[in-house]
Amino acid sequence: MLVSNESQDTNTILDKFKWGLVLVLIAFIVWGNFYFAGPNDIYQPNTIVRIIAVVIVSLLTILIAFTTKKGKTFYVFLQESRKELRKVVWPSRKETVQTTLLVAAITIIVGLALWGMDSVFRSIVFYLTSIGR
């Protein structure tokens, strides 16, 4: 049991180190992108080079995050979500258009009904308080 706890503590410390590294890399991406985007900087690299650098460091950051315990759990969640998404029966184009038109029509009807009731209540309040005269 002691070996298991030591192994678990090591994994926890290693995970914390990895998450710290992830935060440092994200801060580095933000700082580097801001620093090298200066308008009058002689050392300003090409925009394409900056984009490639951000993509490479971002991929490294994601790779490190996925090697943690929570990252692995998240990856499994993504895989299971994708499996469930394949089971979804999506509506056809015709059904989507019909539903959209129905929602739009009902929205207009309810809006007009609310506008009408508001006008009636406004007239009643103006009549009772003599504001409209």
Outline the fold blueprint.
Blueprint: H1 2-35, H2 47-66, H3 69-87, H4 93-129
Question: Top keywords for this entry?
Answer:
133 residues; mainly alpha; elongated
Beta-strand proportion: under 5%
- Write down the secondary-structure element order: HHHH
Kindly provide the radius of gyration, computed on alpha-carbon positions and rounded to a whole number of angstroms.
29 Å
Report the strand count: 0
- Major sheet, described briefly? none
What is the rounded distance between the termini?
A: 88 Å
Shape: elongated
The level of helicity is over 70%
Descriptive account of the structure:
This protein is mainly alpha-helical and 133 residues long. It has helices spanning 2-35, 47-66, 69-87, 93-129. Helix 1 (2-35) runs antiparallel to helix 2. The N and C termini lie far apart (88 Å).
Explain briefly what this protein structure is:
Helix content is 83%, strand content 0%. By secondary structure, it is mainly alpha-helical.
